[in-house]
Amino acid sequence: MKNANNGAVRRPESLSVRVETDLRQAISSGEFAPGDKLPSEAQLIRSHGVSRTVVREALAALRLDGLVEPRQGAGVFVLDPRLSPDSGRQVERARLASILEILEVRTPVEVAAAGLAALRRSPAQEEHILDCHAALMRCIERGALFGHADFALHLAIAEATNNRQFTEFLEKYGDAAVPKSQIVTGDIPDSERQYHEQLVMEHQAIVLAISRCDGPAAEQAMRDHLIGSQTRHRELLQSDRLA
Question: Which of these three, 61, 83, 105, is where a domain ends?
């Protein structure tokens, strides 16, 4: 269904986000206190009526935020972030490592999607891609968080393949898989500026190639973008800022 104000499609909340939100609220309300064991995967599957994959995705999101910790053979336990002065740094490392893993999976799929989008996109889909790209550029120019806008652009490209499998692949991860500026750049202004400039060039190359119906160029531009993202994440994981 289209939104009457802007024509955008309102997407339903993913099942994993629903389970994550329920568990997050239970933790914040004190229903599960630090040290408590969460219900088992089997119990969560039954109580929420979802698959094992959905439950694991929800638990992974909580783990990345430093809220829970899996203990082999024992289950998943609620953490107290106040107990560890380094918990924030550990969470940042875990988040970066997780995003890097997802980027490695996304790369071959999205490279193929970009090539197909360049060949199959309709005029309306091209316009949607351009709109999403403009929204992303506005976020970057304002210095605002742009993870959602970045994901929306990649999703618009996937939709332009007219193959639902590409869209479902990206929707599985959601915009949590998209690198955020504050994670990638740390607190160094010059690094942040260079990173944003690089993102602008990479996304422009992808969008222009799709607009020109140049499949090989679109594939190469997407490959350069996602391989570049992988490289930036690896460099940050190895940097002294996280040591």
Answer: 83
